[in-house]
Write a structure and sequence with these properties.
Elements (H helix, E strand, L loop, with lengths): L1 H29 L6 H21 L2 H4 L1 H28 L8 H22 L4 E2 L8 E4 L2 E4 H23 L1 H11 L1 H6 L4 H27 L1 E2 L3 H16 L4 H21 L5 H15 L14
Antiparallel strand pairs: 1-4, 2-3
Helix pairs in contact: 1-6, 1-9, 1-10, 1-11, 2-4, 2-5, 2-9, 2-10, 4-9, 6-7, 6-9, 7-9, 10-11, 10-12, 11-12
Length: 300
C-alpha cells in the first residue's frame, strides 16, 4: 500500500510541479499571480485530444504511434505557448504600471473567458482521450506501476531539470534572474524587459501544456473546468514551496501530490483536497515565506 501510494503521489506531484513552475516564474518577475495559468493547462489537454484525434483519423497513429505522439506534444506546446504569449501582450502588459488590483482582475477575467470559450467550442460534456495505451506495466516492490506513470514521472523530472539548467546556465535564464531581482537595473545594462517577460510566459505555458497532456493520457477524461481545480492546487504548491522559487515550486508540487495520495489512502479520499490546504496553513504559520522562499525585508 505504501509503495503504491508513493508512486501515485509522485505521478500526481510531477504534474502539479510543472503547473506550479509557471505560477512561480511569472510571480518572480512580475509579482503577479497569473490565475489564467490553470486554463492554459486545460487547453493543453484539449489540444492533445484534438491533434491526436486528427492523427488517428488520417491513419498516422496506426502507421507510427510514437511519431503521432511526438507531433501531438510539439503542436500542443506551440499552441499553448502562443496562448500564453498573447495573454501577456493583451491582458497584462498594458496594465504593468497600473495598481496591483487591475492585473489581478484582468487575470481572473482571462480565466473565465477561456473556460467559457472552450465550453462553447468543445461542449460542456467530458471529452475522452483516445485509448492508445494499454494499461500494461510492471511490478515494483509489491506495487503496480503502469508505463504511463513511468512516462509522467520521467518526463516531469527531465523537464524540471532542463528548466533549472536553463535558468542557471543560459543567457536568457540569467536575464530572467536579473529582471526578477531589479527590473530598472536590468534595463540599464541592456536587458530587454519585454522579451524576458514574454519568454517567461511562453516557457510556463509550454510546461502547463505538457502537464495537461499527461493528465489527459493518465485519467482519460477532460472537461473545461479541470484548469480551475488544478490551477488552485498548483498555486498552493507554489506557495508551499515559496512563491518565486523554482526549486520550491518543484518540491511543493511533489509534496502536494504525496499529501493527497497518502491522505486519500490512509485517512479518507473524500477530504484529500482539504488535507493539502491544512498542511499549507500549518507551514505558512511556521514559515510564512514557504519552505524555500526568502523572507522579504521591508525598507524603512
Amino acid at each position: 500500500m505504501f509503495t503504491q501510494q508513493l508512486i501515485n503521489g509522485l505521478t500526481l506531484g510531477g504534474v502539479y510541479a510543472l503547473i506550479a513552475l509557471g505560477y512561480t516564474m511569472v510571480y518572480g518577475i512580475l509579482e503577479l499571480i497569473n490565475f489564467a495559468h490553470g486554463e492554459i493547462y486545460m487547453l493543453g489537454a484539449y489540444l492533445g485530444i484534438i491533434f491526436l484525434g486528427f492523427f488517428t483519423a488520417i491513419g498516422l497513429t496506426s502507421y507510427s504511434l510514437p511519431l503521432a505522439l511526438i507531433l501531438t506534444f510539439v503542436l500542443s506546446v506551440i499552441f499553448c505557448s502562443a496562448y500564453g504569449f498573447t495573454i501577456e501582450r493583451i491582458a497584462y502588459r498594458p496594465l504593468r504600471n497600473a495598481p496591483r488590483l487591475s492585473p489581478l482582475i484582468s487575470a481572473i477575467g482571462v480565466s473565465i473567458f477561456l473556460q467559457n470559450y472552450v465550453m462553447l467550442t468543445q461542449g460542456a460534456t467530458d471529452k475522452i482521450f483516445p485509448n492508445l495505451f494499454e494499461k500494461a506495466g510492471m511490478e515494483f516492490i509489491g506495487a503496480r506501476v503502469t508505463y504511463t506513470q513511468i512516462f509522467i514521472m520521467a518526463a516531469s523530472a527531465v523537464l524540471m531539470l532542463s528548466l533549472n539548467l536553463f535558468i542557471t546556465k543560459t543567457r536568457m535564464g540569467k536575464a530572467m534572474r536579473a529582471v526578477a531581482q531589479d527590473k530598472v537595473m536590468a534595463s540599464l545594462v541592456g536587458i530587454n524587459i519585454n522579451t524576458v517577460i514574454s519568454a517567461t510566459f511562453i516557457i510556463g505555458s509550454g510546461l502547463a501544456a505538457v502537464a495537461g497532456l499527461m493528465v489527459a493520457a493518465y485519467y482519460g477524461l477532460v472537461n473545461y473546468s479541470i484548469g480551475y481545480i488544478a490551477g488552485i492546487k498548483a498555486f498552493t504548491a507554489a506557495v508551499l514551496g515559496g512563491i518565486g522559487s523554482i526549486p520550491g515550486a518543484m518540491f511543493g508540487g511533489i509534496l502536494l501530490g504525496l499529501i493527497e495520495s497518502f491522505s486519500a489512502a490512509y485517512i479518507s479520499s473524500e477530504y484529500k483536497d482539504a488535507y493539502a490546504f491544512i498542511i499549507l496553513i500549518i507551514i505558512l504559520f511556521i514559515k510564512p515565506s514557504g519552505l524555500f522562499g526568502k523572507t522579504q525585508e521591508e525598507k524603512v
